[in-house]
Amino acid sequence: MIGDMCDPLFMSKIFAGMRVVYHICPNMSPDEQQMAENAIKAGVSAGLEQFVYHSVLHPQAEAMPHHWQKNAS
């Protein structure tokens, strides 16, 4: 499916009927936190057995804002 990961309704549609999800956000997206929150909420609603969130290595690296944001969240 093609759609907007920032749209909670779209995320609910794509998770329907799934058992396992491996979530990886588009690299350095400014909407990464919203996308992850939508994915997690859709996963809970869908009753997933497993949800894997692909993060980054060294989230404590302040010089890399997209890494640091993961550490701060």
Which key terms come to mind for this protein?
alpha+beta; two-stranded parallel sheet; 73 residues
Give a written overview of the molecule.
The protein has about 70 residues and is α+β, with helices and mostly antiparallel strands. About 40% of the residues lie in helices and about 10% in strands. It has 3 helices and 2 strands; from the N terminus they run αβαβα. It has helices at about 10-15, 30-45, 65-70; strands at about 20-25, 50-55. Strands 1-2 form a two-stranded parallel ribbon. Helix 2 (about 30-45) links the parallel strand 1 and strand 2. Helix 1 crosses helix 2. The longest helix is centred in the middle third of the chain and has 15 residues, at about 30-45. The mean pLDDT is about 85.
Briefly characterize the structure.
The protein is of the alpha+beta class and about 70 residues long.
Helix and strand run: HEHEH
Provide the residue-averaged pLDDT: 86
Q: In order across it, which strands form the biggest sheet?
A: 1-2
Q: Poorly predicted ranges (pLDDT <50, ≥5 residues)?
A: none
Q: Decide which structural class fits the backbone.
A: alpha+beta
Chart the SSEs and their pairings.
Layout: H1 8-15, E1 20-23, H2 32-46, E2 50-53, H3 65-72
Parallel strand pairs: 1-2
